[in-house]
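Hi L.,

You mentioned the student needs an example of a multi-chain input paired with its predicted structure. This one should do, with 255 residues in total across all chains.
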Amino acid sequence: MIKVTEAIKTINPNAKYIISGSDLDTCEIEWLEGTTPIPKADIEAKMAELPTEEEERTARENLKASAKAKLIAGQPLTEEEANTIVL
Amino acid sequence: MSIIKPNNNTLSGITALPSGVGGKILQIVNGNFGTEQNISNTSYADSAITLNITPSSSSSKVLVIVAPNSDGYVNLSDNRQFYLRLLRDSTVCMIKQIQIGAVKNPTNDYVYGSIDGTMCYLDSPSSSSQLTYKIQAKVSNTGNNCNVRFNGTSSAGHSTLTLMEISA
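Structure written out for the whole complex:
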């Protein structure tokens, strides 16, 4: 369900809601505080655009490897690379 | 072991105990709630955890035991506050505030934290009408996909709410 909430927040970062259920097809979404309802089809489409966990993990590992290589070589890091080694 | 029957009453005929002896449980209402819910709101919103009870006497007390299976998550290494509260109809009985701030989960960049929403509250509703107890939740900031979640991650997760009417 985290992918559903992520897709909703990608479409509307200020969305406020209650989602009951663990599957997009069958869940009920109550939109709160004047949030404009987002059709399930739009949420589903956005979910398909979001990277999978595997893709995110690979991208993060690549970034970390790049940061390490630059540190060893004494080269400046990008902010994204620095974020992988700074908590 | 012998059983003493006050004033030679039958046991089923005893409906009240002498003063100072303590309460008697008159009824128990219990609910298991397994539906996953994700709530992202900065005002309190109703969860699915709710039960009704109708006390047999306005002098009865109601012991409320809440055991939610709840956690919070946010896609940011930030300190966020998560709130659960227990309501009787529109009266706030009890609030729990939990702070979650931790290192991101390396698998998906989210910070997760268990929310200990366990609540035990002895209510004196002074009513013999139907009462509705329910759990509400909110977060301090909905940014970065911040949510309170009930019964997430596993279909085996359940929350429970138990109401016990106790004689005065």
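You could point out the following to them. The interface with chain A takes residues 35-43, 45-48, 73, 75, 77, 103, 106-110, 142-145, 147, 149, 152, 155 of chain B (CB under 8 Å). The radius of gyration of chain B is 20 Å.

Best wishes,
N.
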